[in-house]
Amino acid sequence: MAVVSACVLLWGLVSARLERWDVSGPIAFMVLGVVVTHGPTAMIHLNLHSSTIRSLAEITLALVLFADASRVNVRALRADAAIPLRLLGIGLPLTIVAGAAAAEALYHSSGFWVAAAIGAIVAPTDAALGASVVQDRRVPSGVRRILNVESGLNDGIVTPFVNLFLAGAVASEGVINGTHAPAAAWELLGGAALGIGTGLVGAVLLASARRHGWSSPGFRPLAILALALFSYSIALLAGVNGFIAAFLAGMAFGTVDHHNDEAVLRFTEEAGTLFSLLVWFVFGAVMLVPGLREAAGRDVLFALLALTVVRMVPVAVSLLGAGLDRVTVAFVGWFGPRGLASVVFGLIAVDALAPEQSKVVLGAVTVTVALSVVLHGVSASPLAARYGAYASRIEPGQPEHTEAAPIGTRTLRQLRSPLLRKDADAA
Questions:
Q1: How many helices (H) and strands (E) does the chain have?
Q2: According to the CATH classification, is domain 52-426 in 1.20.1250.20?
Q3: Tens digit of pLDDT for each residue in 73-119?
């Protein structure tokens, strides 16, 4: 606790300076995780299979799922999200299939279910790793909005696929206490029902309390945070899927009580952001070194495919006829960094699968995420500048320049220091 809190304090002291050099919070905490747990600077030791680490990762993902989904008004989503829905409804499933096919070709000895799980684990994107793109005003607002909405919702949508494929892998290996696919499907349906019910009831109660002046404005953010944690924990107690419950509880809450004050929802986001930085610390501490040590040429090849063909071709297919410029389609296809969701799903898979399967998943996921952090981090600012200059010549009536209020997901402003927020607004 002393070491981790010192890392958070250190980041708070120098974050603005480092972010000017495109060193984001996830990158910094990943490096810190390696530094304080390996080599001559090691001060603590963390175990990859620690139940504490897994619990931290799972709670973090539940908070992020709730926070992202709570910003979604389903009515607004249905009326004004044709392109994000193409990416989520067509591009994401195709990405999972393509990733599973690539994993099956490279890791065929591990079986179909493991390959499918790997494909699903590396499918969701994380706009936090490309914050400089989403924040860059030179990039048209319509494109920034597409990337932000997609990254905020695809981790929740991919959750049932990851669970089903892991259940299939566990059952195929006959692991003790494993579940099979039908049981996992029932857990998903139960989590969905419980999550929607919890979100609806919580939204109605909080809205009524606010209307009648029963709740204190200062305590309201804590109530929403508590609702997020409650939706996840009550699902676990009921024996159903907590991630689906948290995601759909957030969506139900945001749709019914979408008049919630921005500062209230941002508190929940910031709590999730703090936990997410700790997960990046864990990634550096327990996954990065073992994963790279075990990595082989096939892991590098899979990572390159996952970040390029596996992502970009489905995006191009899903956006056919959407009216976007070809350069825009390529830009959206490239900026799909793999981040928090892939790390958390990877930790869960490594802990759940048999040792040989765990090594395969650890290598594939670790190399993919690490390579994404480097490649997307290095290319974000220069490509955003070049694309912004190109996009300025696109006709104003094109989808790239569509002005609309955000309909969901983190704004990512909480991931950057106040000084850089001020600079971005001035730009």
A1: 20, 0
A2: no
A3: 666 555 557 888 899 999 999 999 999 999 999 998 888 999 999 99
